[in-house]
Amino acid sequence: MPLALATRHSAHAAVVTPLPRVHTCQVCPGRHNVCAAVRSSELDRLTAMRTAQTVAPGMTFVDEGEPALHVFTVTSGVVKLFKLMSDGRRQIVGFLVAGDVFGFAPGEKYTVSAEAVSPVGVCRFPRRQLERAFTEFPGVERQLLDVITRELAAAQDQMLLLGRKTAHERLASFLLSLLRRQDNEDGSVDLPMTRTDIADYLGLTMETVSRVFTVLKGSGCIAATGSGTIHILDADALAELAEGAADDDA
Amino acid sequence: MPLALATRHSAHAAVVTPLPRVHTCQVCPGRHNVCAAVRSSELDRLTAMRTAQTVAPGMTFVDEGEPALHVFTVTSGVVKLFKLMSDGRRQIVGFLVAGDVFGFAPGEKYTVSAEAVSPVGVCRFPRRQLERAFTEFPGVERQLLDVITRELAAAQDQMLLLGRKTAHERLASFLLSLLRRQDNEDGSVDLPMTRTDIADYLGLTMETVSRVFTVLKGSGCIAATGSGTIHILDADALAELAEGAADDDA
DNA sequence: CGATCCGTTGACGGTACTCAACTACCGTGG
DNA sequence: CCACGGTAGTTGAGTACCGTCAACGGATCG
């Protein structure tokens, strides 16, 4: 979900510093380049209203139910979005990386909370200002529509995962989506989040996630390579697992 | 998710008939009136490009993976949106009623399929034309952004339901959301969809849904009132159930 | 009247949860 | 230097919720 509002390389720019320039979005390779749709006049305007900010791991910086005064773009690090139930049950509804956007709520209040997984850089845009900019620069609104539409499609995929897939299928799907998103040459995949986070994203418990990891390692699909990274050895086997390949070896 | 593109009362208007006039949206009482944001010049333009269409129950009229050439608005009846896995498992990602919009995909293809639950009226807008209209009438794009944002928030709620709630909590949440959406004076709720549909929406089996219905009836929360309708007798008890009230009566 | 679909109910079993013990890995500080 | 506590992760034993399979009742329809 790239947006010109946030570019990976302008992460720590000061408030008044103009964005470097329009450049190809490096976050989602292969996707259409939405950055190209933004003219420099728009960039100047957007740059003027944003506030750069850093967030330490474990810090919650958006709370569900609070007034939705700002829209955020992630410039570095990983953010988790989640919802809580009164008894503490938690559902993580998404992990955001550089280029992603959140906080654009349908009503007056945020519908999810946001917490930094790793050290995070974000840009904060006052929502009212941003909305006013829509009428002046329709390209910005168009981008936001694209981003939200993509997020909706991802949410629908996740509903299929949560409603209908087994634990093995869920973890396989999750690892593949990370592989696709990170797109490292070798099959390495960063896992900055804890087992508990993964569990809360996949609708499982930490123990089940751990057990499934063990099975996947044992079957040679993946290999652990130090803390916080794994290697995907057999993406095809993982893809079959993700889509319910009936392993009728009996 | 109301949109001026579709108004409940213009449901069966012919292709060339102009929409009656801008009027208060009756689909989502209490919500802000997005219809008011559309000027009559836009309405004329939108009316000119739409095609009215009716769909019989059980007919699939949008297929996941097919080129996304049209955007649809529902004018009457109930539509289910769903995703399928290769082995037949199904997840319904939403039920749409009059005023709802779908088919606005992030890429070139639809990401979900659509099937009529009851006899359905829809309006079809060529996607390219609609997108071109965005630049001319920004209000339309703004509405669509509102609609999609609302759908995303609903999808996140559903992720919490699918990932973390028990069968009882799921059905209670579902019935309450229907009650809120239909907002009938008495506590009556229409259930035009089958038990299997409800199960596929809640990530359960038909049998479990049936069993939980029986329990809810037995506990006096709801009462069956003929086929396809129930009465909600105790919305508060249902609300407690929906949010995991630990019924420690022991 | 048989066929089919939808829904209900029962018996049984499996996947994933709960509870618990244990290891590894930190950084802290005695 | 190593004991110490805290967090993250792994593994095991037992269990519960919900899925599977199956039988049955009622409604609709040709």
Secondary-structure map with pairings?
The structure is a homodimer of 250-residue chains.
Chain A: H1 40-49, E1 51-55, E2 60-62, E3 70-76, E4 79-84, E5 90-96, E6 101-102, E7 113-116, E8 120-126, H2 127-136, H3 138-164, H4 167-182, E9 188-190, H5 195-202, H6 206-218, E10 222-224, E11 229-232, H7 235-242
Antiparallel strand pairs in A: 1-8, 2-7, 3-6, 3-8, 4-5, 4-7, 9-11, 10-11
Chain A binds a DNA duplex (30 and 30 nucleotides) through residues 166-167, 194-196, 204-208, 210-211, 213-214, 227.
Features:
four-stranded antiparallel beta sheet; 11 strands; alpha+beta; homodimer; 250 residues
Global structural class of chain A? alpha+beta
- Relative strand content of chain A: 15-25%
The greatest interface between two protein chains, and residues involved on each side, is: A-B, 44 and 44 residues
Number of helices of chain A: 7
Note the run of SSEs of chain A as H and E. HEEEEEEEEHHHEHHEEH
Mind telling me the C-alpha Rg of chain A?
19 Å
Assembly form of the protein: homodimer
Summed over residues and divided by their number, the pLDDT of chain A gives a mean of 84
Indicate the overall shape of chain A: globular
Spatial separation of the terminal alpha carbons of chain A: 43 Å
Strand line-up in the sheet with most strands of chain A: 1-8-3-6
Percent of residues in helices of chain A comes to 25-40%
Largest sheet entry of chain A: 4 strands, antiparallel
Number of β-strand runs of chain A: 11
Question: Residue ranges of chain A: pLDDT <50 for 5 or more in a row?
Answer: 6-37
